[in-house]
Amino acid sequence: MEIVETPEEARTVGEGTRGLVPTMGYLHEGHLSLFEEARRQCDVVVVSLFVNPLQFDEPADLERYPRDLDRDAELARDAGVDVLFAPPVEVMYPEDPLTTVRVRQVAETMEGEHRPGHFEGVATVVAKLFAALRPDRAFFGRKDHQQLIVIRRMHQDLSFPGEVVGCPTIREPDGLALSSRNVFIPDREAALSISRGLESAAEAVEAGERAAVALTEIVRRRLALDTVDYVTLASQHDARSLDRLDRPAFLAVAGRVGDVRLIDNLPIDLVGEMFVPDLGIRLDRPSLLYSR
Amino acid sequence: MEIVETPEEARTVGEGTRGLVPTMGYLHEGHLSLFEEARRQCDVVVVSLFVNPLQFDEPADLERYPRDLDRDAELARDAGVDVLFAPPVEVMYPEDPLTTVRVRQVAETMEGEHRPGHFEGVATVVAKLFAALRPDRAFFGRKDHQQLIVIRRMHQDLSFPGEVVGCPTIREPDGLALSSRNVFIPDREAALSISRGLESAAEAVEAGERAAVALTEIVRRRLALDTVDYVTLASQHDARSLDRLDRPAFLAVAGRVGDVRLIDNLPIDLVGEMFVPDLGIRLDRPSLLYSR
């Protein structure tokens, strides 16, 4: 594996189709599953590691975001990554950037409402990575489903070649969706109320429930968060909220336990004429987040 | 020369370094000079031809914008272009686009003030062309100097590889800057007052004048337009207006003759310690706009 700091190097190592997995580092099994999928689909696997200041709406959150390049490099190498692109801030932003990429509509609901500027930061830095690294495929977790939709739409609207691939959420053995922020959670039981709520909703979907108000209420009844930002059934196509489950959708939850903000969601795919909830993949042992 | 309708084809014809010249068609010697420069610097010359609805703030202007693919294809072929990328609207916008690329500051003065949304449309469609066609170099005329700055900044901020190259303005024998819109001008003498004003300013610069107010006044005294939108001395780096000519700059003019809006400018480069006005290149015979 090569560790490089410039896009030119990241773009030219290796030959064949290139798969990109953008990350902010502090890798866990969620990222590793994306590396594996990229490995399966592409000749060269490029992982970017950049804690993007633009997408943090809270300076304290940026400040404490965990960083450890040696640790991440070792995990990436073990996972068969070919190129780790870890640019210093000066390479990504030689001058104060004036350009922003904005996605209307799909970026304005849910996370867009609760984290002003967040998706603009995400869309802008991912557009930069697409422009600079020219991947044939880029891989994102379904855990951030609205983000996946924002990126997919940006990718299409700006005519980037290739494909944006969404991959299943990886969960800890108790069901908590993996996130680098999990190490800060002050009350595990409270945090687990999210995935438990989504599991109950998945059962209801399988039993035939289609009303958004019923599905969101099932989730809300189980939630034990300190604050709930939203519980919403939204379209997979444009992230607009739905009254009924009548197309591919996702049931999204966001809230806080102490000062840690958590999000999770249940994608509900349409397979033939069947609605199939995607609860993701559960690890069979504790995440490496707690040991490495 | 190949005429293609999809980015995939435009991206894969030919081998070696790729030069892109984005146009809205109805080609004239201004475009041809960009093709020549691309020919000199690159192995494969790609010309895009797309009248981008996003950048027209006036529907009437979009409506009457001249279009003639056969004519343009013949001119491009004669000029040694390798690929003419002429996408139908459905290829460029398969769905109503939600994504916009905005460049703050440099796109907010002058044209940005007078044509709301214009530069957002330009930056977005040029980002699309850069993303889709992956040029090593892209060529733009200095006639639209602020546009060149907006595009250069977008290109840098989004980490597109390669280079944005600015080329001299091509003028008709009487000095009028070439533009596809020239065929609609109702009063040639009035239109010529712009280039004459800029010529006078160029003489003043060469005689040592450095005050913005003096230089703009020299231009304004000669102008015989029906309306003047602005006469501004601005920085080549960030398009901000200057009080004094103390760095690379351009003296920009915009206004109307009848209902035809015209812009022109005098780039003033710093060569060593000398300020050198760039009046562009004058054709020695009438433009092909009037005969083909």
Distinctive features:
homodimer, 292 residues, alpha/beta, Rossmann fold, Pantoate--beta-alanine Ligase, Chain: A,domain 2, 2 domains, 6-stranded parallel beta sheet, 10 helices
Give an account of the 3D structure:
Two copies of one chain form a homodimer. Helices cover 35% and strands 24% of the residues of chain A. In chain A, helix 7 crosses helix 8 (145-157). The first copy, chain A, folds into two domains: 2-167, HUPs (Rossmann fold), CATH 3.40.50; 180-290, Pantoate--beta-alanine Ligase, Chain: A,domain 2 (2-Layer Sandwich). In chain A, strands 1-4-3-2-6-7 form a six-stranded parallel beta sheet, with helices on both faces. In chain A, strands 9-10-11-12 form a four-stranded antiparallel beta sheet, covered by helices on one side. A two-stranded parallel ribbon of chain A has the order 8-13. Chain A has helices at residues 7-12, 29-41, 59-64, 69-78, 89-92, 111-114, 118-133, 145-157, 188-206, 212-222, and strands at residues 2-4, 18-23, 44-49, 83-85, 99-103, 137-141, 163-167, 170-171, 227-235, 249-257, 260-271, 274-277, 281-282. Chain A has 292 residues and is of the alpha/beta class. Chain A starts with a strand and ends in a 10-residue tail after the last strand. Chain A is globular and about 50 Å long. Chain A has ten helices and 13 strands. In chain A, strand 6, helix 8 and strand 7 form a beta-alpha-beta unit. The mean pLDDT of chain A is 96. The interface between A and B is medium-sized, with 33 and 33 residues. Strand 5 of chain A pairs antiparallel with strand 5 of chain B.
